[in-house]
Amino acid sequence: MKAIKTNAVIHSFRGLSDGSLSLTVHTPELTPEEKAEFMELQNQSLECLFNPLDVPDAPKLKVDKDVRQKSQSTRLYNTLFVLWKQEGEQGDFEGFYKRKMEKFIDIVKDNLE
């Protein structure tokens, strides 16, 4: 697997529900070998620098977050959903979620001074 440096154009983007962006990037025409190198990077966590070529010395904005990391609340929500499925999907998930969250809140309250 190789690192790739190429010129590209952001063709389109869309905002996702988690606050991230999905980008469509157009590259120059590539050889089959170059295409294969890009394909090797699919689903890999990458470091990207989007540097405008027509703005020399453009100031840098660093976004220092892990792209694969979900928030703790999202992880808990997803985990509770799996638990609901494993317990036979009794009732609707939103009710199950609210009951479990109230139990967690009560546990924390019990530990308050």
Helix percent band: 25-40%
Number of domains: 2
Low-confidence stretches: none
User: Count of helices?
Assistant: 3
C-alpha-based Rg, rounded: 22 Å
Q: What is the percentage of strand-forming residues?
A: 5-15%
In total, the number of strands is 2
Mean pLDDT, as a whole number? 87
Distance between the termini: 54 Å
The rough form would be described as: elongated
**Pattern of helices and strands:** EEHHH
Major sheet summary line? 2 strands, antiparallel
* Widest beta sheet: strand line-up: 1-2
| Helix and strand composition category | alpha+beta
Explained architecture:
This protein has 113 residues and is of the alpha+beta class. It folds into 2 domains: 1-53, no CATH class; 72-110, no CATH class. It contains 3 helices and 2 strands. Strands 1-2 form a two-stranded antiparallel ribbon. A hairpin with a 5-residue loop joins strand 1 (9-15) and strand 2 (21-26). Helix 2 (72-86) crosses helix 3 (93-110). It is elongated. It starts with 8 loop residues before the first strand and ends with a helix. The model has no long low-confidence stretch (mean pLDDT 87).
